[in-house]
């Protein structure tokens, strides 16, 4: 009998990539994708716990799925970071779950699911050192693919739970990465995204073959018409050679996402980020000098324990000086087991939200000004999907990772197009097709 599966995914691109790996392994084992949880024999919830709200959504979804047990013998599994964090205790907290699948267990998902059918409760496998080969993935589209180049994180920022859910850093052999990338390009993939919790530290641990800048250059050297992006970067491990690798190849995205988290040295120290605002600004200057026109975006956390009005004012001043191309703001939330959870002087929720809105408002005006400067310029865009908002309108990203909207046809999806920018807002650029 053939069983069907459905995967619900929360969280970052790493989780989306893990879900594609899980789907590929289940499909290879004879399982078929279902169109909804209600029509699936197996439902897997791939969870995120980076923030409290994400963990609460995961618990809510897992609890809600209990309804499927009433109408059919649906197998329910919890995957991802919540599974890694809570482990077998989840089977006691949510009794209708049949198994947990940690981030280390992906290669064994088909075995674990079959065990769940047989025993109604599968165990966890021992932690592995290797990273699953992405070529088993069941990708959502044919033109973009993620490649895991490493797993885990050794930085232990005081607010972050990732080192406890994804383990210590392990870099994947460069030969495997390059072989996989070449295979994907041969299959027609137009965008390769290199994934890691901190790609800048790729290969830096003992036994490393090449550094991240060398890996970037090697991937870009693969013959074919495609572009390379990567995420996520830690300023602590950023080197000039990374910017130089980007400048040397037109295939590598001119977008640098470099999470700053705070513009206050005091808060950065409490966060255990191990760099200063001055050091961070020097990196941004170096990037802009090496890669003219580079897009630089960042993350900032508001309301970190002990953040005063003075600390926040320093963050505002830093954002005004640097003038990022984009900004992602997150409200701090305690994560069990992290050092920041034990810090005193918690910031009230209403203050956190007010600071978030102030930062977003500032960045909207900066982004709008930067976008306005692009009127009349031509940019290369990867056509990703029809927006559905206007007839023939295509949504895509250019090499600077800016959202670009333009008129075209479905035949152009998954291909590059030259687009002239006609108008802009704080969220997206609008243009006209110059050349497909």
Describe this structure in words.
There is one protein chain. The chain has 436 residues and is an alpha/beta fold. Helix content is 34%, strand content 22%. Strands 2-1-3-4-5 form a 5-stranded parallel beta sheet, sandwiched between helices. Strands 14-15-16-18-17 form a 5-stranded mixed barrel. A 3-stranded parallel beta sheet has the order 6-9-10, sandwiched between helices. Helix 13 (309-322) packs parallel to helix 14. The radius of gyration is 22 Å and the shape is globular.
Structural class: alpha/beta
Euclidean distance between termini CA atoms:
47 Å
User: Stretches where pLDDT falls below 50 for ≥5 residues?
Assistant: 120-130
**What is the arithmetic mean of pLDDT?**
90
The number of helical segments is 14
Q: What integer value in Å does the Rg equal? A: 22 Å
Strand order of the largest sheet: 2-1-3-4-5
- Strand fraction: 15-25%
Largest sheet: 5 strands, parallel
The number of E-state strands comes to 18
Helix content: 25-40%
Global geometry = globular
